[in-house]
Every structure is written in C-alpha cells, then in structure tokens.
Amino acid sequence: MTELVFDEIGYWSEIKLEIIEKYGAAYTSILKKQKLKKYYIDAFCGPGVHLSKESGEQVAGSPARALHVSPAFDGYFFIDLQPEKTDYLQRLCGNRTDVHIYTADATTCLMNEVLPEIKYEKFTRALCLLDPYGLHLDWSVIETAGKSRAIDMFLNFPVMDMNRNVFWRNPDRVAQDALDRMTNFWGDETWKQAAYAPSPQSDFFGAPEIIKQENEGIVAAFRERLRNVAGFQSVAEPLPMRNSNNAAVYYLFFASPKLVAEKIITGIFAKYRSH
Fold it and tell me: Domain spans of the chain?
C-alpha cells in the first residue's frame, strides 16, 4: 500500500474548512428542532488531516470537523478513492457505528450507495461537501442533489484547473480528455458558450474569432445552471478563494432547497470576502 503523505493546504483551504464547520453547526441546530434525520456526506474526504503550508502544523480536515459539530449529525458518509486515506480516516473514527467509509470512485458511490438514502419523502436530509481533485466529478451527482429537495451542498468549482487545462485561448488545442472532463462536470457542452464569446472583430479571412471570458462570467453561468437545471431553489453568490497572488484558485459554491439557508451562508461568507 502507498504510504500516506498528508496534503499541504493553503490558507484559503483552511478558510473553507472553517466555513463548512460553522454552517454545519447552524444546519444541525435547525434540523434538530425539526426532528429530521440529518447526515453529513463528504466526497473526496481525504484522511481527516492536512498540513498547513504556512505553519507546517496539522490541520483538522472536513471529516474530523464534521464529527465534532454540535448538535451532532445522525450519520456520516465519507468517500475517497485512495485506500491509504480511508484507512487512516477509519483509524481516526474508531468503531463508531454512525460512520460509513467508502474506498471508491466518488461519483459511482454517491449515485449508487449514498444519495439514494437521502430522500425528502423519508424525512432524511444531508449536508454534502463535494470537494473534487480538479474536474473529477460528474454533473449527475450535482443534479441528483438538487432535485432531491433534501440536500444542502458545498461545491468546489475548480476554476484554476479549468483555466489550466480547458479554457485556453485556442480551444482547438485542448486535449480531448480534458474537454470530456469539463463536459461531464458541467453536464453538457453549454460550458463553451459560457467560456467563449465571439469577438466583435474578424480575422483577415473574415472568420469570427472567439474570446475567452473572465472567471466571473463563467461562474455566473454555472450559478444559473445550479438553479435552473439542477433545481436548487437557493444558490448563494459563490466565494472566490484566492492565493497570495490574488488569483482565484477555486470558487466555493453553496446551494440549498431552502431560502433561509442562503441567508445563513451569506452572513458567513461575508466575514471572509475581504481575505
């Protein structure tokens, strides 16, 4: 088995973990009063521990933080493809019967094992974190979560990975596997209309040129897609996570079937928008 090496994370990822932990506590408090079964789903969960790039010290990951949220969730679903990470997480969780750990492809596991357990009609609800390593997530997961009317979702929208591998100034040079991953993540090829627009000018032969759009336009198009296609009633303005060069590494999306959830997360996001 591959030896486990903890991932190093930047301060923007530490902020993301703080946000999810804060919202988790608000979420479980509300659902406890409503007497609904509440679950935490963490795809691409990792081992539950990271290393801070700034300090070198260990940082509790999202699974470890979720386990300590109070009021507690009624159950936890943790998924990661790498066995060395799930093995470590299993040791971290001990013999807890409310924890279910899967060493599996996240999309397959979510669609076949986890999301079928979360049903509006069964009075089960879930807070779901989708934090993929790049574009390794299928739209079917996002749409299923939205149409369930039972899931609040945090989603890492990996715009830096998209810019590096897909959104090139000359899209004809992009590798086919990168195009396929982008289409699977977005759900169809309408990402092309979001990422590129015709230039008002033409080249020497009169053929229209295309211009790569800014991140904000692409992100806005995806936000509308979460509302209009996935069916989330509420999609908060996403929070850009920026590195020390002020470049957006990714955008943290939050979507929910409840409008009140957007009010809560908007207040939490506001505390971090100046970072």
Answer: 8-164+215-270
C-alpha span between 170 and 174 (Å, rounded):
8
The Cα 120–Cα 61 span in angstroms is: 29
Beta bridge partners of 52: 9
The answer to whether 195 and 212 have CB atoms below 8 angstroms apart is: yes
CA atoms of 265 and 120, how far apart (whole Å): 22
The one-letter code for the residue type at 251 is Y
Name the CATH code of domain 8-164+215-270 (choices 3.40.630.10, 3.40.50.150, 3.40.50.1000, 3.40.50.720).
3.40.50.150
Summarize pLDDT for 167-213 with one digit per residue, the tens.
Answer: 998 888 999 999 999 999 999 999 999 999 887 665 555 555 788 99
**255, 230 Cβ separation under 8 angstroms:** yes
pTM score, whole prediction:
0.93
Cis ω for the linkage preceding 132 (within 30 of 0)? no
Q: What distance in Å separates the CA atoms of residue 250 and residue 269, rounded to the nearest whole number?
A: 15
